[in-house]
Design a protein that fits this description.
The complex is a heterotrimer of chains A (305), B (287) and C (254). Chain A has 305 residues and is of the alpha/beta class. Helices cover 35% and strands 31% of the residues of chain A. In chain A, β4 and β5 form a beta hairpin. In chain A, 36% of the residues are buried. Chain B has 287 residues and is mainly alpha-helical. Among the domains of chain B are: 97 residues, Serine Threonine Protein Phosphatase 5, Tetratricopeptide repeat, CATH 1.25.40; 59 residues, no CATH class. Chain B is built from twelve helices and two strands, in the order ααααααααααααββ. The longest helix of chain B has 35 residues. The N and C termini of chain B lie far apart (73 Å). Chain C has 254 residues and is an all-alpha fold. Chain C contains eleven helices and no strands. Classes of the chains: A alpha/beta (305), B mainly alpha (287), C mainly alpha (254). Chains in contact: A-C, B-C. Chains A and C meet through α2, β6, α3 and α5 of A and α1 and α4 of C.
Amino acid sequence: MATVLQVDNLAKAFTPGFIPKKREILKGVSFSVTAGEIFGYLGPNGAGKTTTLKCILGLIFPDRGKIEIFGHPHLSMKGKEHLGYLPENPYFYDYLTAAEFLDFYARLFGLKKRDKEDKIAGLLRLVGMEKARDLQLRKFSRGMLQRVGLAQALINDPTLLFLDEPLGGLDPLGRKELRDIIVRLKQEGKTIFLCSHILQDIEMICERVAIIVGGRVISQGSLRDLISEKVLFTEITLSGIDPACLVDLGELVSTHGDRILLKVLQEDTIQNLMALVHEQKGRIHSLIPRTETLEDIFVEMVKQG
Amino acid sequence: MTGSSGRRKGSAAVALVALLFLFCAGIVSLKLAIERIPRKKIPGASIIYIPSGKYLKYATFGYSSLVADLVYIWAIQYYTTYTIVDRFQNLEHIFSIIAELDPRYTDPYEVGALIAVNEAKDLRLAYKILDLGLAKNPDQWIFPFEAGHYAQRAKDYETARKYYEKTMNIPGAPEIAKRLYAAAGFKVMDLEESWETWLEVYNTATDERTKKIAGKHLYQVKTAADTNLLKEAVRRFRERYQRLPAELGELVRFGIVSALPQDLDGKDYIYNPKTGEITPPSIWWKR
Amino acid sequence: MKIKAIALNTFKEAIRDRILYLLLFFAAVALVFSRVLAVLTVGDRVKIIKDVGLSSISLFGVLMAIMIGTGLVYKEIDKKTIYTLLSKPIQRWQFLLGKFFGLVLTLFIMTLAMSLIFLVIVLLYTGRLEGSMLLAILFIFIELVLITAVAILFSCFSTPILSSIFSLSFYLIGHLSWGLETLIQKTRPGMSRIALRGLSAVLPDLENFNFKTEIVHGLAIDPRFYLYSAVYGLVYTLFILALAVLIFKKRDFV
């Protein structure tokens, strides 16, 4: 598959204020994104996610390194023709209406008049903002701004889409809707670069990820390779059993009235437990195996790095 | 619960409004009290302390002609505030500032000279101002013309001749300048001649401004003549009836004069029955 | 055209700024006040009206240029609207030029409004439509365009307050050219004099655009002076814009 984004050895240091001391933010970042995938770029706050993104988009000039978009140098106009970008906490021109706003960006791409109208209507429909078409942006809520921002990022039908924390600040319904839209876009053949620190969302939709900690990419690969399917432990909720009997079988997490939450490490212990419950005429309310999550890996990596 | 707190809120609002009224009343009465205290200064008098027009010009950042206008307007108000008895000390200074700021602004030279002659009784200063005006505006014949006029009224025929000669040589000067040049050697100009001079200038004037200036001088001559007439009439009345007339109408009723003269605007002269003084209804150069 | 799109967008944004209308209101008040002020003078009353009028247009125009110019680019950077813009296929200089033209258009509308009020007041007083005033106003506008470029330049790297102070200083220095001339004359010939001469050549001479006094007095001006002044204004504006583009080009948007 073609590589749409190639980043090699990106380095950037800042000199805050007048003190000549440099602060290195990016210390040699390298990764690549292939066509048609949803790529997750994660890292703790301050790791350099947004800085990397700004380097790619030409908002910051890196000290060292090479960036190529669709094989073109990243600062060329050709590279930017097929990009879309939704920044974190988007803020747009207050006094424009949603339609005027999209119209402005459409004109920057030189879209023809009739195409413009259709495009704007279609995009507003896609992000669910049709009704707010003639409302001034200053009256929009955070979630609405996020959606309009996504519409703006799609105005030129980009093949590579950059989303910086797109799901932050949305309510659960909004997050689901946005996730669905992202998946749908991928199905249309777009490549999506998703910057986030909300691991649940990444886990749900990304195929490949790169993890950046302290200015370096410490891990890169497909999600499935990173996360083993090994079961770490099992959480069992039961009632009607004397807690004293359970001491050997597992770790008592909590008790709520009659119900006990037990953490069981060995798989075979579960069999013994179930036998015990059957014997004592108790009840098992739930049995949930916990596999390794992205969060586990992430926390581990950050601790190491 | 809501009722009582609502009432508390209501009474708090009323108390606040009452307080506001009290403050207002206090402010107003204080201001009135301050105004009653006599103040010697006229606002803006600190203009006197500006060292020089040259430096002021730098501080105006390209708005020098506007500042010239404002200083001029201020000067007019200042010099007609008769309560300030020592106001002529800075006459030269103020008008030189205005000249420095906008040398081609012609009104201040004239009015400055006017104030110098009529109010400050400083003829030398009037010449100085008019000379400056001519130096900066060589095409303005009215400056040496007025200077000659003042000189002649003061019986300084030498100076008058010099000025009339200067006037003659400026293109656009009225014909009468030549005649005045010739006549200046002989006598002081009486009111009759003054009237004729300015009437000719008025009638032959080619622009509004000259007409206006001539009109002003005509007004001044007429009021001078009328004031003299009225003064004489009052004197005769007093001689005959051993008292000052209560008002000017009495002069007509008692047959001293046939009719009361009016100024060029048709207004009556102002008469002070306690002192017998006659004053014209307008300040002639301010019309 | 991309510059046009940005210019129009900037215009729409600037023209809705309430500060502009506040200043316009004050300008109108000043213009009407000139009529009142004229009553107090002895002699030529129209001169007062014209002086106050032209000075108001000039002063309030400069304030408008500085107020909206210094906020313009800074606001985009601060509010991060610039992120989405510059990630599009648009060059940074196109963005800056678009901002500049949008602002110039806004100032043009404002100047037009003030000029109309002024001409109507003069018309009501003298019964004549004084077209010569437009010439003075034209050069005031050229000066405003230059100040706008300066405001945008500072706005590229400075906060609005600092930019305002710098732009205002530029304006004041530009009108102090007489002071510099006097200083040069009083200095003895030598290194310092040469340095001062160099300084006076580079520093903006905004007095070149000041025809207020001459036009109010109806004095004739050599048409070459008009031409040279206009070209000077154009070249200096281009110089400032080039400087702005240079600074803006290599800026990191953290």
